[in-house]
Specification:
alpha/beta; four-stranded mixed beta sheet; 19% helix
């Protein structure tokens, strides 16, 4: 079995992307290892685990050279709870998003962009979103 440990986002909008994840996804900033504290960035935690790593653009990540073209990840998907809570936070902040219901696999999804331009997908169990549904 493979699970995703974390996602690292390299951004030229470090402060606004940090604020975006803290506010929209209700993450908390936590400690970073001493070995990487010289690199501008943030580790954002959920349930005590660092799940989003942010690095200022132009900074090396793990010694990997960034001057060569490479593959690009299209988007990152997070499995979350509280579909309506996320939609309320997005609406309150005027953040545009789109939704997709996938009844054949019992999921609901929300797609949105970070201020730095990374596409995110929030995935929810449709059964959990139907209880207490307000729409």
């Amino acid at each position: 079995m493979m699970t995703i440990d974390h996602v690292t986002i390299r951004t030229g909008a470090l402060a606004s992307v940090r604020a975006f994840f803290l506010e929209v996804f209700e993450l908390e900033e936590g400690p970073r290892p001493l070995a990487i504290q010289r690199i501008p960035g943030h580790w954002l935690y959920s349930a005590g685990k660092p799940v989003v790593h942010l690095i200022g653009s132009g900074e090396p990540a793990g010694g990997i050279a960034r001057d060569k073209p490479g593959e690009t990840i299209d988007h990152v998907g997070f499995r979350l709870e509280n579909y309506w809570g996320l939609r309320d936070r997005l609406d309150a902040r005027g953040i545009r998003y789109s939704t997709m219901d996938l009844p054949d696999i019992n999921e609901r999804r929300i797609f949105l962009w970070t201020p730095g331009g990374t596409l995110l997908e929030a995935v929810f169990d449709a059964d959990a979103t139907s209880s207490g549904s307000r729409r």
